[in-house]
Structure to design on (221 residues):
C-alpha cells in the first residue's frame, strides 16, 4: 500500500514538473520571459526570405553555366556543391552565440556564411569548398562579422576582421572600400605585419572563436 502511494506521489510530482517545463517554454505567451540563456521562436508563417522554385532553378542554372566548368578546370575535379549541417547542432550553436552576444551586450543582426576550403578533406587528398558561419552586427549601417566568444571575453565588440588580423590574415570583405584597398593579384592575404600590430590589444594563438563549421560536403560523398 505504501509502495502504491509512493508511486502515485512520484507520478504527481513528475506531471507537475513536466507541466511547469511546458509553461517555461510557452513561446506563444507574449507576457512570458524566457529563463536566462533560453530563447523562444514562434512560427510566424512564410517569411520574405523563402524562395519559389522559379528563382531556385534560375539560380542553379546560373551556377551551372558560370561556375562548374571553371572550377573543374582549375581543380581538376568537381568542387563540393552541398554543405549539410546537423539541424539540432546548428540550433545549439545559434543558442550559444545568442547567449554570448546578449551577455556581451551586442545585438546579432545576421549570420554570414563565408566561402573557405578544407585541404585533404576526409582523406581524399583534395581540397573542397566549405563554409564558415559567424554572426554579424550592424555598425554604421553595415553588417559586420564579429566574434561573440572574444567579445564577451574582452568586454567589447571584437570583429572577425580584428581576430583574423591578430592571427596573420587580412580580411578585406567588410566593405567595398576594404575590398578595393586590400585586393591582391596573387590572392595572398597572409600578413605578419598586422599580426604584430594587433598583439597589444588582442592575444594571438590558437584561440577559441565564435565561428562554426561542422558539416558534410557533397561531392565527394
Amino acid at each position: 500500500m505504501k509502495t502504491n502511494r509512493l508511486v502515485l506521489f512520484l507520478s504527481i510530482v513528475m506531471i507537475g514538473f513536466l507541466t511547469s517545463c511546458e509553461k517555461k517554454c510557452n513561446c506563444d505567451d507574449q507576457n512570458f520571459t524566457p529563463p536566462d540563456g533560453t530563447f523562444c521562436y514562434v512560427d510566424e508563417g512564410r517569411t520574405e526570405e523563402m524562395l519559389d522554385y522559379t528563382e531556385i532553378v534560375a539560380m542553379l542554372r546560373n551556377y551551372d553555366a558560370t561556375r562548374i566548368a571553371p572550377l573543374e578546370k582549375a581543380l581538376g575535379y568537381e568542387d563540393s556543391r552541398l554543405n549539410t549541417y546537423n539541424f539540432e547542432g546548428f540550433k545549439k550553436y545559434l543558442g550559444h552565440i545568442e547567449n554570448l552576444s546578449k551577455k556581451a551586450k551586442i545585438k546579432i543582426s545576421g549570420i554570414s556564411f563565408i566561402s573557405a576550403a578544407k585541404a585533404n578533406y576526409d582523406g581524399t587528398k583534395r581540397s573542397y569548398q566549405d563554409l564558415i558561419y559567424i554572426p554579424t552586427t550592424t555598425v554604421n549601417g553595415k553588417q559586420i562579422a564579429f566574434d561573440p566568444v572574444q567579445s564577451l571575453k574582452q568586454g567589447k565588440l571584437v570583429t572577425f576582421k580584428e581576430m583574423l588580423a591578430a592571427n596573420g590574415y587580412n580580411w578585406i570583405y567588410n566593405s567595398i572600400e576594404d575590398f578595393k584597398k586590400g585586393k591582391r593579384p596573387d590572392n595572398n592575404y597572409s600578413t605578419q605585419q598586422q599580426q604584430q600590430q594587433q598583439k597589444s590589444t588582442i592575444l594571438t594563438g590558437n584561440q577559441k572563436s565564435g565561428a562554426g563549421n561542422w558539416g558534410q560536403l557533397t561531392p565527394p560523398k
